[in-house]
């Protein structure tokens, strides 16, 4: 089975000068800031050098002690080997990082970028100026690079009684969900304005958050413990957004029961918002204020009436593809100060969507295989580079899978009230097809059903069961990395 990394090239941009091109990620848009004229000049000269190098290999003459056939075989074998290196992923990354190869990337518009509740204005007095060169875009990149990145890992201790020591080709939804919860912890402990530091020692809270997401049973939010908490999850199985949200709810409750309030790894209540049939039949979820309050009281053991709360809202916004009427509503959720982004991506490829511009989304991609890293909670000198991304990736919202989940973090009662006000306003603008609604109690209003509005002529299926779908053997690369609509 090919991993997402196998199908694309992951590229970085030194000094924020490179953003991936659409050719690197099929179906997604990536871009490269900076002028093309200078890059073209540099590329031409370097390309000439590379062509000359190939010519030299072709003209190589073997010593006369070899026969003509032996010489030809060795010459062509060596040349073919070098060419494979030159056109391979390593050389492509060399071109992109060193030569500044100019690709046909899309251009960022002058519209505002929203990244997890923060707006970055790219407009300039000079309408002809490149928005990528604006101060707003530079601030956006700094914010994007500070978001937590969780990717495939290899080389960790076997999960449970299985033989899986890697989550390659099946763990993308788990990694995407880890990223969302990690952002909630960052917002809670470090604040929304926190940015990663290049200097050491690093912030203790930052290191402790990373430690929580390590790849061992000792790390509270590891892939090991998520699988143990999920009733229908097992190593090597794909999982959808709804089941993933319920798994986090179960894990949080288990840790809450085992730990004193002041020592909670997840210092907030968790509320999975659902609709009719507990969300399994496609009903538009209803944020029930009374339920949220109950979750907060249970989390605090009755000590307080309200606590910080993490809301997860699983949605199904279509059958084969997302209904276009929901796209503006999804984009609008990123303007909420409480926004934690979206668990979603292209069909079969789960990602973590963190921002939007117009109808395009910016996302973090878990489909890169990295060696396991053990971040000790007291190691303030740790190398944390593998937990951040310096490649901006973009995808059209109309291409994302209709099965997704939205996250929100509310610091307190006032913040929750503000969220409810914004959500109610958004529902009022939905022309009868809201993403979700808000009600004082679950019996105070009947939510609209997505199955009634998502497709004009779609058949509604009554099967509300769901199951984890096993992959092939971990070493078999023939399967696609897919997650089911749950």
UniProtKB/TrEMBL annotation:
It catalyses: [protein]-C-terminal L-amino acid-glycyl-phosphatidylethanolamide + H2O = [protein]-C-terminal L-amino acid-glycine + a 1,2-diacyl-sn-glycero-3-phosphoethanolamine. One of its GO terms (cellular component) is cytoplasm. Its EC number is 3.4.22.-. Residues 1-43, 466-486 are annotated as: Disordered. InterPro entries: Papain-like_cys_pep_sf (IPR038765), Peptidase_C54 (IPR005078), Peptidase_C54_cat (IPR046792). Residues 17-26 have a biased composition (Basic and acidic residues). Residues 27-43 have a biased composition (Polar residues). Belongs to the peptidase C54 family. Interacts with ATG8. Cysteine protease that plays a key role in autophagy by mediating both proteolytic activation and delipidation of ATG8 family proteins. The protease activity is required for proteolytic activation of ATG8 family proteins: cleaves the C-terminal amino acid of ATG8 proteins to reveal a C-terminal glycine. Exposure of the glycine at the C-terminus is essential for ATG8 proteins conjugation to phosphatidylethanolamine (PE) and insertion to membranes, which is necessary for autophagy. In addition to the protease activity, also mediates delipidation of PE-conjugated ATG8 proteins. This is Cysteine protease. It comes from Daucus carota subsp. sativus. The lineage of its organism: Eukaryota, Viridiplantae, Streptophyta, Embryophyta, Tracheophyta.
């Amino acid at each position: 089975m090919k991993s997402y990394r196998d199908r694309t090239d992951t590229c970085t941009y030194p000094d924020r000068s490179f953003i991936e091109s659409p050719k690197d990620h099929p179906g997604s848009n990536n871009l490269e800031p900076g002028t093309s004229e200078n890059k073209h000049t540099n590329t031409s000269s370097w390309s000439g050098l590379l062509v000359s190098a190939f010519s030299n290999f072709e003209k190589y003459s073997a010593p006369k002690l070899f026969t003509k056939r032996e010489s030809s075989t060795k010459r062509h074998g060596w040349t073919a080997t070098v060419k494979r290196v030159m056109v391979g992923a390593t050389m492509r990354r060399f071109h992109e990082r060193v030569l500044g190869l100019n690709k046909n990337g899309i251009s960022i518009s002058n519209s505002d970028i929203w990244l997890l509740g923060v707006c970055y204005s790219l407009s300039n007095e000079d309408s002809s100026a490149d928005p990528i060169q604006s101060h707003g875009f530079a601030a956006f990149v700094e914010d994007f690079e500070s978001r937590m990145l969780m990717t495939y890992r290899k080389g960790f201790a076997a999960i449970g009684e299985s033989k899986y020591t890697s989550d390659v080709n099946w763990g993308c939804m788990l990694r995407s969900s880890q990223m969302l919860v990690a952002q909630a912890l960052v917002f809670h402990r470090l604040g929304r304005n926190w940015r990663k530091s290049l200097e050491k020692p690093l912030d203790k809270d930052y290191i402790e958050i990373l430690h929580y997401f390590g790849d061992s049973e000792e790390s509270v939010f590891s892939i090991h413990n998520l699988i143990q908490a999920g009733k229908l999850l097992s190593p090597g199985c794909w999982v959808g957004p709804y089941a993933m949200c319920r798994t986090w709810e179960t894990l949080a409750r288990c840790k809450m029961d085992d730990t004193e309030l002041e020592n909670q790894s997840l210092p907030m209540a968790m509320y999975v918002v659902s609709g009719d049939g507990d969300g399994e039949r496609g009903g538009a979820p209803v944020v029930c204020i009374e339920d949220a309050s109950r979750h907060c009281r249970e989390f605090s053991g009755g000590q307080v009436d309200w606590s910080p709360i993490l809301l997860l809202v699983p949605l199904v916004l279509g059958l084969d593809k997302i209904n276009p009427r929901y796209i503006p509503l999804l984009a609008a959720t990123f303007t909420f100060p409480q926004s934690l982004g979206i668990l979603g991506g292209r069909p079969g490829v789960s990602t973590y969507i963190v921002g939007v511009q117009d109808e395009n989304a910016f996302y973090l991609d878990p489909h890169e295989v990295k060696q396991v890293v053990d971040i000790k909670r007291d190691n303030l000198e740790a190398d944390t580079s593998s937990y951040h991304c310096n490649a901006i990736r973009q995808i059209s919202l109309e291409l994302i899978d209709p099965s997704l989940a939205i996250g929100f973090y509310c610091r307190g009662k006032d913040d929750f009230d503000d969220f409810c006000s914004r959500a109610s306003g958004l529902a009022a603008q939905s022309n009868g097809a809201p993403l979700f609604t808000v009600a004082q109690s679950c019996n105070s209003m009947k939510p609209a059903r997505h199955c009634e509005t998502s497709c004009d002529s779609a058949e509604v299926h009554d099967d509300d069961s769901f199951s984890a779908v096993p992959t092939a053997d971990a070493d078999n690369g023939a399967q696609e990395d897919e997650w089911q609509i749950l």
